[in-house]
Design goal:
This protein has 275 residues and is α+β, with helices and mostly antiparallel strands. The protein has nine helices and nine strands. It has a five-stranded mixed beta sheet.
Length: 275
């Protein structure tokens, strides 16, 4: 029988050996490089360790036909998610070459859309459609959590641009939202799993929360295993810690996007890719 995982003490966290030597309650290195897609209303390259995703927010005038037909007031938020062919160790075929989107991508883009709609006042957005595009450049675990966290930054930048252009009088985003993974790896609760940990974890959990730690969505499943309430609470405790840290980093990135020049963003981008 698998040994139950207790809520970890600081000493237990410090002594846990992970593939990348992080403590069990430690996020990977998180970075945000804003304005990487000039034609989007707002964009950011977000990295969770070796996982890198370009998140772009494009705001268009007008709403989907079903909203006009049903006379639904306000705007709409929708998302698309894609892993680029070179994002994984072996080439991943494009959805267009198969003629349909795969089930995993469909599930993730629906999650991204739900997460942002939970914190955006659609009526305050007006009769506009907010498109969120998340394209994975490199996958090393946690692409959905990086996408949600980065999309929030991209959307915030886009909304600030509309306010600056006097197209909005105030932000329809009521709160920021972020996401992080946690799991049971080697019988221990760990935060922000990379690919090796995610592959070998007996339990994997993705948590989406607002900056004030209200839940948006929790996805948790045992990988040919079950898990106890104690283990679940340990993963939630780690996730809350991670969300608080991510929210602070998001706020810094949004503020930096407004003040930095394009040349600064290009320099950050070159540095990120080793230039």
């Amino acid at each position: 029988m698998r040994k139950p995982t207790a809520i970890l003490t600081p000493n237990e966290i410090t002594n846990m050996e992970r593939p990348d030597k992080r403590a069990c309650d430690q996020l990977r290195r998180i970075s945000f490089i804003p304005n990487v897609a000039p034609h989007a209303t707002g964009s950011v390259l977000v990295s969770f360790g070796n996982t890198s995703v370009i998140c772009a927010a494009t705001i268009e005038e007008g709403v989907p036909g079903w909203m006009r037909y049903q006379k639904v007031e306000g705007g709409w938020v929708t998302a698309e998610y894609s892993m680029l062919p070179y994002s994984t160790l072996s080439r991943k075929p494009r959805d267009s070459s198969r003629g349909k989107i795969d089930g995993r991508s469909s599930e993730i883009q629906r999650l991204i859309g739900r997460s942002l709609r939970a914190v955006i006042d659609l009526k305050a957005l007006g009769a506009r459609t907010l498109w969120i595009d998340c394209d994975v450049l490199r996958a090393d675990g946690g692409t959905r959590t990086a996408s949600i966290t980065g999309a929030t930054v991209a959307v915030s930048i886009a909304i600030n641009a509309l306010i600056a252009e006097a197209k909005l009088t105030h932000s329809p985003m009521r709160k920021k939202v972020a996401a992080v993974s946690a799991g049971i790896y080697k019988d221990t609760a760990c935060l922000d799993l990379n690919y090796i940990e995610d592959r070998d974890a007996s339990v994997d959990c993705n948590v989406v929360m607002t900056e004030d730690l209200e839940f948006v969505e929790v996805q948790g499943s045992g990988e040919e295993a079950t898990y106890t309430d104690e283990q679940f609470q340990a993963m939630l405790a780690l996730s809350k810690k991670g969300i608080q840290e991510l929210s602070a980093l998001q706020a810094t990135a949004i503020a930096a996007a407004e003040s930095a020049a394009d040349a600064d963003h290009l320099a950050d981008l070159a540095k990120h890719f080793g230039g």
